[in-house]
Amino acid sequence: MEAGDRAAIGFDASVLEASRWSGVERAAARLARALAEAGETVVLFSRRGIRWPLAPHDRLRFRTVPGPGPLPVWRETALPAALAREGARLLLSPVAAVPLMTRLPRVAVIHELPWLRRPSAEEGRTAAVHRLRILAAALVCRRLLVPSRATARDLAVLAPGAARRIAVLPWGVDATFTPGPPSGRIPLPPGPKILWVGTVRRRKALPVLLAAWRGLPAPRPALLLAGVAGGDLPPEDGIRPLGFQDDGGLLELYRSADVLACPSVSEGFGFPPLEAMACGCPVVAAEAGSVPEVCGEAALFVPPRDPAALAAALSRVLGDEPLRRAMAARGIGRAAAFTWAAAGTLARRLLAKSVSNDPPRAAPGRGASSARSEEDSTLRSRSKTTSDDA
């Protein structure tokens, strides 16, 4: 740490070592940069160099800290030692995994708990490991940050003793995502297009969308699948697996599509519908998880796992140009309420309170209602502004 600096925030950036970033990694990187924009010095620790696609900032510093063994061993050994050398005042983990053997104040981000209400939404081993990590974080962290009220409610059910330490920190939408004509960088078929952005993980409910699409009358619109590789599905006329897409590719697809379909049964936040709205692309989504509170009245919702309802909603949007224009306008207005500047300012205040608070103590459970901290007012005010009844 340089002379004159306020003690830095230590940031476990090991998740950013991934070659391809999902929503978790994108949120982590943007949160770190938003904190720097808000005036914090953030030191990002990783086992090896990370690819940093965002704009640099003089308050962002990167430290490569080699260490023995697998990642959990690194978190318990090399990372605490590096934090001590740096003089960090707290550790912010962008995921539930935190070191247990350190006295440094810890704050963890809990993105979602998909297996809590829908046990079949996540593979068994993945769910078990995730549950254990969250419970451990709830025992030792001074603050648990979640991106939505839906996740806050779920987390308070799983760890009622930590309910008073849960704070809602809504993510923002990157300034990259704006309305405009497509550039043509991705060759796409002419005619109507339905876009889906995600992975083939069970909770994303891709089979529901495929069934809905097959139920549409001929000629069917093209179905664009961002995040799905050609080998993930058998070839089928009209379906275009597009593989992994970076922000530039996603921008092109949002601007090209007539509607985004989001049938997922569990999202901790929901970047694809928010980004689609920011680009003026109408959204049809399952009424599940956090997506209703993020999209508000700007999206059209259907019951989860209901291909017929999803097909009917998609047909309605595709066949009604005035409706598409109205949804696009509402979506742009809704997305404008979610900024990374606001997220950085709120995160800074929450982290300051985390350092000043006493360490966690065992507390009796008070139910999910205790998860509504004063910081939740930020998301409530956004909902009120846009008449959201999430």
Summarize the structure.
The chain has helices at residues 23-37, 71-76, 78-86, 114-117, 124-140, 149-158, 206-214, 247-256, 271-278, 291-295, 307-318, 321-335, 340-356, 377-385, and strands at 9-12, 42-46, 60-64, 90-93, 106-109, 143-146, 166-168, 193-197, 222-226, 239-243, 259-262, 283-286, 300-302. With 390 residues, the chain is of the alpha/beta class. The chain is globular, with a radius of gyration of 21 Å.
Write the layout of secondary structure elements.
Layout: E1 9-12, H1 23-37, E2 42-46, E3 60-64, H2 71-76, H3 78-86, E4 90-93, E5 106-109, H4 114-117, H5 124-140, E6 143-146, H6 149-158, E7 166-168, E8 193-197, H7 206-214, E9 222-226, E10 239-243, H8 247-256, E11 259-262, H9 271-278, E12 283-286, H10 291-295, E13 300-302, H11 307-318, H12 321-335, H13 340-356, H14 377-385
Parallel strand pairs: 1-2, 1-4, 2-3, 4-5, 5-6, 6-7, 8-9, 8-11, 9-10, 11-12, 12-13
Helix pairs in contact: 1-13, 7-11, 9-12
Provide structural commentary.
- The protein is of the alpha/beta class and 390 residues long.
- Helices cover 37% and strands 14% of the residues.
- The strands form two sheets. It has a seven-stranded parallel sheet, sandwiched between helices. Strands 10-9-8-11-12-13 form a six-stranded parallel sheet, sandwiched between helices.
- Helix 1 links the parallel strand 1 and strand 2.
